Amino acid sequence: MKIVFMKTAVLILLIAMFLLSCSDNDSEVDGIPEELAQDVSEHINIILIIIDTLRADHLSCYGYHRLTSPTIDSLAAAGTIWVNAQAQAPWTLPAHASIWTGLTVRSHRTETNRNWIRSDSSGKNYALDENLLSIPVLLSEAGFSTCGIANVCLLGDIYGFDNGFNNYSCNSAGHGMAAVSVDSLIVWLEENSMERFFCMLHLYDVHDPYDPPSPYNALFDTENSGEATVWEVEDGLLLNPEDRDHLVGQYDGEIAWVDDNLRTLFAWLRSRNLNENTLIIVTSDHGEEFLDHGWVDHGHTLYQELVHIPLIIAGPGISEGFVDSSFVGQFDILPTMISWAGVDCNGQFEGVNILTDDLTGDRVIPASGVVPVPWSTGGHLASVASNSRKTIGMSDLETFITFDLNMDPGEEHSLPADSLGVEEVLYYWATPQRGYPVFAMPGQVEVNALRNLGYIND
Ligand SMILES: [Zn+2]
């Protein structure tokens, strides 16, 4: 009853915010000459917006106590918000690869090399496999004009994320570039939006250092309680835990700054009538840790502060003002997007179409991480969420803990490991969809997982 009440309250709040926003935004686009508004009746377009490092619970439409995201809230009110969306990885490279390919990390294998994965010992990250189907490749082949704007080196061409884009730019140090990136996207749209288009906009501003421009730096940190813009860690020790509230305030200011730039983009789309025939998706690759479980930054754990991500879709055919509590993943974006666009595809994906597929069963949403060595001594992590039950395999999958996310969304009280959850974690780990190279050269972790599943008998 309590949950139903909360969802109803959130829905009412979203609708109210949307109505307010509509009146504001209508006045913003006043003065746009009518002849600039395009006749886009035959165009069905897609804009995918990925806000790096954005944890869902810091958006006001996800119940945050600060009004960080009025524009994104308005989009949620105009479309559907998935309140239990899960990332497939806790850091940038593998999480984006799951968005691109519709696969889990164990299948696309775009992550940090550690010797147990492949035979070389270069210690480098693996690029996106060019043989995999991806959103830009599929939509490009389907006739979409494609544009990608990214703001971190991990999404550069050497990692293969430009494959399938007609136009792709990646600023390898793109922190603070939200306004410039939105302007660049609008310039591209001015020249190309008469064709059916797909745009990917990746914004890196919310990632540390947390130093939003004025006045966003004072929105939630009014006492200016500190000067730090990053966590200071030395030899594994956190030197400035007392800066937590200040850093959270600045992080929230970054969200507001990004949200305000999206307001500019959405107002421009409305001024050209493009909002009528454009699907808009807002999500993130992973969240951020603020000592929730003793860690800061991201990449180290699979707790919800890192894997609970926003997922909002609005546009033609999308239910308005709907709150969906199904457990879904970022690997669902590709199948959902191409199905919505009517693109025929014979590819095998682990994600599903969350707009039309039945999600009421015990669907398993996995996540995993290979902690980058420069950040720690490394280790293997894997988890599965199935409805509200979540099991995490810790420390090279030798220790398991379970949480009930409905009763304990902050994962403060671990339960004894759920045997079904443990089996699901090990099954995910041992049986990647593409099946290589783990079976050709299994390491000790895979051997243990296979043994536990009964595939190896000593
Ligand atoms: Zn990231």
Describe this structure in words.
By secondary structure, the protein is an alpha/beta fold. The chain has one domain: Alkaline Phosphatase, subunit A. It has 11 helices and 16 strands. The strands form 4 sheets. An 8-stranded mixed beta sheet has the order 4-3-5-1-8-11-2-12, sandwiched between helices. It has a 4-stranded antiparallel beta sheet with strand order 13-14-15-16, with helices on one face. Strand 15 and strand 16 form a beta hairpin. Helix 1 crosses helix 2, helix 6 runs parallel beside helix 7 and helix 10 packs across helix 11. The longest helix has 28 residues. The protein is globular, with a radius of gyration of 21 Å. The N terminus is likely disordered. Bound molecules: zinc ion (ZN). Zinc ion binds next to loops.
Q: Counting H and I runs of at least 4 residues, what is the number of helices?
A: 11
Report the β-strand fraction as a percent range: 15-25%
Q: Please bin the fraction of helical residues.
A: 25-40%
* Form type: globular
Structural class: alpha/beta
CATH class: Alpha Beta
Tally of strands: 16
Q: How far do the termini sit from each other?
A: 51 Å
The CATH homologous superfamily corresponds to: Alkaline Phosphatase, subunit A
**String of helices and strands:** HEHEHHHEEHEEEHEEEHEEHEEEEHH
Strand order of the largest sheet: 4-3-5-1-8-11-2-12
Query: How big is the Rg?
Result: 21 Å
Low-confidence stretches: 1-42, 114-123, 436-442
Identify the bound ligands: zinc ion
Write the layout of secondary structure elements.
Blueprint (H helix, E strand, L loop, with lengths): L1 H27 L16 E7 L18 H9 L1 E7 L5 H10 L3 H4 L26 H7 L3 E6 L16 E4 L7 H15 L4 E7 L29 E2 L2 E2 L5 H28 L6 E6 L5 E2 L5 E2 L6 H4 L3 E4 L7 E8 L3 H9 L23 E6 L9 E7 L2 E6 L4 E6 L14 H12 L13 H9 L6
This protein binds zinc ion (ZN).
